Amino acid sequence: MINVISISLENEMDLILAHKRSMRMAEKLGLTIATQTTFATAVSEIARSVIEHTDNGLLEVGIDPQNQRYSLMALVSYEKEIELSNNDEGFYYAQKLVPEFNIIKTEQGNQVEMKIGIPRSLKLDKIKIAALQLFFQNDEPINAYESLKKRNSSLHKIAGEQEEEIRRSRFIDEKKNEFIAVASHELKTPITVIKAYIQMVKASKDECSDRLKGYVEKIDYQINKLTMLVQQLLDVSKMENGHLVYTMDKIELNGYITDMVSVMKNIIPNHEITVSLCTDVEVQIDKLRMEQVFSNLLGNAAKYSPEQTSISISCELLEDQTVKIAVSDQGIGMSDEDRTSVFNKFYRTKEVVTTHAGLGMGLYIASKIINDHQGRIWVESEEGVGSTFAFTLPYQLNN
Ligand code: ADP
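Above: the input record for the complex with adenosine-5'-diphosphate. Below: its predicted structure, written as tokens.
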């Protein structure tokens, strides 16, 4: 059937629509008034019988192009559990009205099919049928109820489309995560092998020029950077899959920060790092994961500020039983808009995209680690002046 009209059969108000729309369709085809009335009556009788049993029926009116001859056709669908019988007056009466009346039973449900032949003299063709479809698509609602129904159905359609969109983007996201997980895992093996060879070269007693030694140092430096990036990729994929696990230890904060800073001083030798500690407290942390946070914040402070400027670390005990640790630099800073986004996955400010290497994963991972330690992380910043990244951790006073 070439569908022209669809009406969901939910309540008595739909009977009026079923009747008026079937009548209109027959009229538009140029059928006689008697045929219009007969068809519309048969359709609304079946619709009534269905509505008596369910609020989940469907009426479709259209053209059946079979057997070289067009017929006006109505198809009423309802659940397969519902049995319409001749005891039902409307059902019995409708059979008498239309020349072709069939009941179709399938696994999906039952249908009543009614057809009235369209005389050839009316010269119906595909173009006229398309015009008919367009007419009913754009026809003004018959009453306020139909206008509400139309609005509802377009809302449903939009909701359906949005659901589909979300489903599709979830699928793409899953595939991307899968790819990141596999790629970072595959990259790890050759990197480990290269690192092992570099260590062997460095440890070797063989004769080697200073120039070659310099090259080896450079390879070592770049491989370390690559290792960090691959580790970040692995962490992101673990985070997405909810597999980031923590080994928590109770440690004294001041000693931990002092150790961290002495390691970082070797990694960022061209900045002055100053530390201002507070009363020593105990914190419950995963030492390696927290090291990642420090290394990211200090590494960024150095990366996004001129050499020879200073980076300061400060601690402060807050009233809510947390300790605030802040890392401040005298670097490029960032706009207010960027401040709200820098902790998002893969976010990089437009100022640094072409000037500094990076993937925008470090702060995303750091914020996840801090959140998983029941802390908060944020940034205060002024463009051209510098940034302060601060985070909190719950603490206990030392005994
Ligand atoms: P990456 O540094 O690899 O790009 P991050 O997640 O560590 O990734 O940082 C995200 C972005 O936040 C950076 O690209 C940069 O634009 C901005 N940013 C981070 N730290 C600083 C900082 N100390 N000063 C200015 N901008 C920063």
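Notes for the reader.
The radius of gyration is 37 Å.
The chain has a mean pLDDT of 93.
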